[in-house]
């Protein structure tokens, strides 16, 4: 209470100085308050406001990021960050921040009158940037679209519009990239994957290499969830930077993890012979996933429905399970499955020892070769669009 009272007085005094045009005095006053009462959201927000008024936009942006590190769901901080990015001449990044602000905006009835105009502008900005991004993406894949059958072309165009944000998706729940009209199938039939026999037949070999790592105290395993400060943790708060869910990556975002590959040469050689997803800068992904005793991975969804995840259970010390949508399965040692991780799913280990599975991604088998080319191009083009300098 004492800190809040002191903070309120410091802010009121600084605002009075601002009204008199004394931005230097306001800045000094707030800086002293921030030193004595660190991580106070309103003090940090007012520091950002003073720096913006002085035209020191880069510094203002740093304080807005500090405010979001304190409260990632601060609507006002997100709105202010989007506006500051606009002033810095970075409209594409501004639109991405505005998207997040719009998602958590108060209802029209609860929105303060002073924020009606800024929120209306944010919505208009997002709409305009979405349309411009759609035009940009269309230009990058127009030649590829010409070679597609009508239905594939229609799906690709809808994908483009969904990726740019000009259309709304009404199907599965990917976090980053939606390809339209792919059926939401929790677990795909094994008939799609005749190579499962080869994979499952190598289980003993994979387990031998894995046990070598375990014998050496699992070198290279690190927390699977590692959110940066200021990122909303949501359901993963209890697992963020936790050893309860650890992983050892063989491929990550398309990059070979040479240290791990050297420790598992036969497993790595096997994976190279399988039809892994291949997207420059994004895939393949392959890892060992270790879940501690009596630990549950909460319900969540994955990044894109253009790929499936394959699970191969390797060490099952006791009761453990997995749910995708409404379908619940028990693990069976050495028996693989492929599922759409954009459908809500969760996993649990009720045993008294660590459960370990191998995970890697493959293309959704319902995409044509031409559509895969389009997905590759769209992912890279969207990344290029957002890489604003």
Structure description:
The chain has 389 residues and is of the alpha+beta class. It has two domains: 2-127, Tetratricopeptide repeat domain (Serine Threonine Protein Phosphatase 5, Tetratricopeptide repeat); 190-363, Jelly Rolls. 47% of the residues lie in helices and 15% in strands. The model has no long low-confidence stretch (mean pLDDT 92). The chain has helices at residues 2-19, 23-36, 41-53, 57-70, 75-87, 91-103, 116-146, 150-164, 196-201, 203-215, 258-263, 265-273, 369-386; strands spanning 222-223, 245-252, 255-256, 286-291, 295-300, 307-315, 320-324, 327-330, 337-339, 345-349, 355-363. It starts with a helix and ends with a helix. It is globular, with a radius of gyration of 25 Å.
Secondary-structure blueprint:
Layout: H1 2-19, H2 23-36, H3 41-53, H4 57-70, H5 75-87, H6 91-103, H7 116-146, H8 150-164, H9 196-201, H10 203-215, E1 222-223, E2 245-252, E3 255-256, H11 258-263, H12 265-273, E4 286-291, E5 295-300, E6 307-315, E7 320-324, E8 327-330, E9 337-339, E10 345-349, E11 355-363, H13 369-386
Antiparallel strand pairs: 1-2, 2-3, 2-4, 4-11, 5-10, 6-9, 6-11, 7-8, 7-10
Helix pairs in contact: 1-2, 1-3, 2-3, 3-4, 4-5, 5-6, 6-7, 7-8, 7-13, 8-13
